[in-house]
Amino acid sequence: MTILVIAEHDNAELKAATLNVVTAALQIGGDIDLLVAGEGCAGVAESAAKIPGLNKILVADNAAYTHQLAENIAPLVSELAAGYSHVLACATTTGKNVMPRVAATLDVAQLSDVTAVESADTFLRPIYAGNAIATVQSTDAIKVITIRGTGFDAAPAEGGSAAVEAVSSVHDAAISSFVKEELAKSDRPELTAARIIISGGRGMGNGENFALLEQVADKLGAAVGASRAAVDAGFVPNDMQVGQTGKIVAPDLYVAVGISGAIQHLAGMKDSKVIVAINKDEEAPIFQVADYGLVADLFDAVPELNKLL
Amino acid sequence: MGEITYLCCGSGDLQQPNLSVVLDRLEIIIISGDCMKVLVAVKRVVDYNVKVRVKSDQSGVDLANVKMAMNPFCEIAVEEAVRLKEKGLADEVVVVSMGPKACQEQIRTALALGADRGIQVETDAELESLAVAKLLAKIVEQEQPGLVILGKQSIDSDNNQTGQMLGALTGMAQGTFASEVNLGDGVVAVTREIDGGLQTVSLKLPAIVTTDLRLNEPRYASLPNIMKAKRKPLDVKTPADFGVDVTPRLKTLKVAPPAQRQAGIKVESVEQLVDKLKNEAKVI
After folding, report:
1. Do B263 and A293 lie within an 8 Å CB cutoff?
2. Interface contact flag, B52 A131, Cβ < 8 Å
3. Is B51 in Cβ contact with A253 (below 8 Å)?
4. How far apart are CA B51 and CA B49, in angstroms?
5. Interface-testing mutation among A87, A97, A305, with chain B (most B C-beta atoms within 10 A)
6. If residue B82 lies in a helix (H) or strand (E), which one and from where to where?
7. pLDDT tens column, B209-252
8. Contact, A131 vs A267, CB < 8 A?
9. DSSP B259
10. CB of B54 less than 8 A from some CB of A
């Protein structure tokens, strides 16, 4: 078997999520190549080459690939895919955007959000917001897969020395163009990469009160998240949302503050190693999944937590 | 001979104005972008309030006597299309659904929300995203919409694939996970919800948009509109009519409930909580 992994990066650095996909590829087994498509992304390719277990790094460096536009990246990946049994990418918004376009071009089905590898053609993936886990076998010659990072440990980033090879093929569909990007700037870690997350729900009352969580987060080196209720209420922006329709996270410690624990939120965080719930309603469903529950008013408990850390 | 202005509106007749007389001088004014057809795809799924149960033989999820509804992301797609029509940016909203006869309910719902006409592709086969995209591609070929709007994913299979696959099959550009859609002259600007923030792309029309939650807040259908929807046209087709092979590529070997998390303990104070996290769980 030969596997092509699509690197997630921003032309400057390789995103950590790629390492989880490499682990999934290693579990499938076979020769693994990694594609870095972008512009001015030689540095990314260099760091990717250090990941142990890779055969070679393919670099497609062209202005058409700068912003990972699906219309340009998908034909490139589809062209390269012909030589592989599996094509894997992260189940991030980039991977989710590009990969189905690859699958349809190849006339194969896609397996989305795979959380475990059972064999080279059989995989586990959550359906119904994680309320059921399907074991799915692919009959297609090329398996196009997105990998949910929380299902796999990160592969080591150092120790390998794969060859780097340029790919000259350029695909510019010229039907889409990048206009702008507004990325939330924060010194805190990204939600999907954080070891500790503290999230607030509707109980926070308003956006200003999230400052209470931020103080704790800064002491713990944690990321700050939110439930959909808090996002819908306009307290915080959507990219902070943890849940079925937001980010799927599995940190070492997840602290849910003023979050009742709707199914849709649990779907996004129930694989966390340790869950703490702080809620004044002792009947809140969040307590059914919490390792440590504290029935208390968050406006008393969070400042006290901040003092004790 | 005098000056004749041929005013052509809509997407279907833009390419070939049907003129049967030879004219000395012809001026064709094409109002592009202003008047176009929007195609919306909707899916019938288990209502999002239902807590699904896995069947004891692990063959799937128990759907007997379970409340069904339009996929929430598809509701947002219908709403966006209807708003484009209300703004005068679209002249017709065509809604498509695929599945057993019962999915006509969801088409009627969309018609009650303001769509003009429905197409059902009737089949009892379980359709994978690729098959749906292939059928939609055939309908796009027939209908020639200026914009196709779909939900970003359905809340049953959670695949998040159909819109992107349709893009590949039709060669159209895609604006996935949209939180804002702005139609311009021959282009559409789509703001996308991406990891870490927002990204805006400009796509040449015709194009595909898949909706994210914050694109709009869908309206409720009024009773008069529900009654009116019953009289709106609904075409029924089959996959065979389009010559599309819908044979599944994936085999579901088993569907199991997720590992259950056990509730832990209640702590009495913040102090005890910090102590447990430091000394028992050792996570801080």
Report:
1. yes
2. yes
3. no
4. 6
5. A97
6. helix B72-86
7. 999 988 999 999 999 999 999 999 999 999 999 999 999 999 99
8. yes
9. P
10. yes
